[in-house]
Amino acid sequence: MSDVILEVRNLVKYFPVKAGILQRTIATVKAVDGVSFQIKRGETFGLVGESGCGKTTTGRCILRLEEPTSGEIIFKGIEITKLNQKQLKKLRPKMQIVFQDPFSSLNPRLPVKEIVGEAMVYHGLVKGKEAEKKVKELLEMVGLSAEHMYRYPHEFSGGQRQRICIARALSTQPDLIVCDEAVSALDVSIQSQILKLLENLQAKLGVAYLFISHALNVVKYISHRIGVMYLGKIVEVAESEELYLNPLHPYTKALISAVPVPDPKVKRQKIILKGDVPSPLNPPKGCRFVTRCPQAMSICAEIEPQMLEVSSNHSVACHLFQKQL
Ligand code: SF4
Q1: Higher pLDDT pick, 51 / 223
Q2: Residue pLDDT, tens place only, 301-318
Q3: Which residues pair with 38 in a beta bridge?
Q4: Does the Cβ of 296 fall within 6 Å of ligand 1?
Q5: Cα of 48 to ligand 1 centre, how many Å?
Q6: How far is the CA of 106 from the CAs of 27, 160, 161, 202, in angstroms?
Q7: Which of 18, 41, 61, 272 could form a disulfide with 23 if both were Cys (CB 3.0 to 4.6 A apart)?
Q8: From ligand 1's centre to the CA of 300, what distance in Å?
Q9: Atom of ligand 1 nearest to the CA of 299
């Protein structure tokens, strides 16, 4: 069996902008515009970029919470973009999501026992008393205890609520969990506890994560490989350490320069990007970073750079490197 659990090929998601009485399409938001990557079994692939770059939409398309405009999503060897809802239901337990806000993603009217157990029951994975036993096991696995089963979400702290969300995601024994800004709403000390928990669970269960975040230091900590997204496209992919030590794309360099260094003796020159991210309604014609890139050349405004492998496990889409090859 292939080592690859998920393959995304040229994923595109456009949102029409409608107006008028007839609701005519007057523009198109190009939220995701040709994204490709793979995730192996038990691997964490981080997707990082500023808010609005399309990383959350990519995650939602992979789970078919949004319908892709085009492209292929191959999960465990099955192309899922063409599956109907009935076919998709069989695969659903194997792909789960943990959202950013652990409070709004938990039903306040249900006790933890039902929140964690309902997917297992819905998919027919457990029967009767078995569900309670399984919920207890899951809660212990995420650092909570059996007594928490009968409490309601408002009785927990933010970190504990995120542990409940993780227990719920694990309840169906998934092969892939999309963690969408899963620690962004938490305090820094709690963030590291949840990241450690995710790591330990991965080592134990072999689950793969698509870890989506705007914070490069968080993504670097947990990911084996990282894809950097800008305005609907992946502009650089590399192993985590390699990306951090040897960033090639000017946008990645700017992102890394903004990460605080914990050692006061080490001084890093911050690259300040001028201007805002262009609108995904009307992205630049050539390289999408051209309006903010400190190294832009004339070719950049005209021709879109293609993704090229510059060394094993390190690819970049930038004319600076295409010129050299
Ligand atoms: Fe900058 Fe040009 Fe590279 Fe785009 S292609 S990142 S504008 S140098």
Answers
A1: 223
A2: 999 999 999 999 999 999
A3: 7
A4: yes
A5: 18
A6: 35, 12, 8, 23
A7: 18
A8: 6
A9: 2
Indicate if ligand 1 lies below 6 Å from the C-beta of 230.
no
Per-residue confidence (pLDDT) for residue 271, from 0 to 100: 87
- Interatomic CA distance for residues 53 and 43, integer angstroms: 23
Residue 294 lies in a domain: no
Q: Are 36 and 10 in contact (CB under 8 A)?
A: yes
**Exposed/middle/buried for 230, CB within 10 Å: 0-12, 13-18, 19+?**
buried
As a three-state string, the secondary structure of 177-227 is EEEECCCCCCCHHHHHHHHHHHHHHHHHHCCEEEEEECCHHHHHHHCCEEE
298 located within any domain: no
Tokens of 172: 């169906």
Domain of residue 58, residue span: 4-261+269-277
Q: How far, in Å, CA of 233 to CA of 230, rounded?
A: 5
Q: To test the ligand 1 pocket, which listed residue (319, 321, 323, 324) has its Cβ within 8 A of the most ligand atoms? A: 319
- Answer whether residue 304 is part of any domain: no
CA distances from 128 to 90, 98, 117, 134, 201 (A): 21, 26, 11, 11, 26
* Residue 289 covered by a domain: no
Tell me which residue has its CA closest to atom 8 in ligand 1: 296
Alpha helices in 40-157 (DSSP H): 55-62, 85-91, 112-122, 130-141
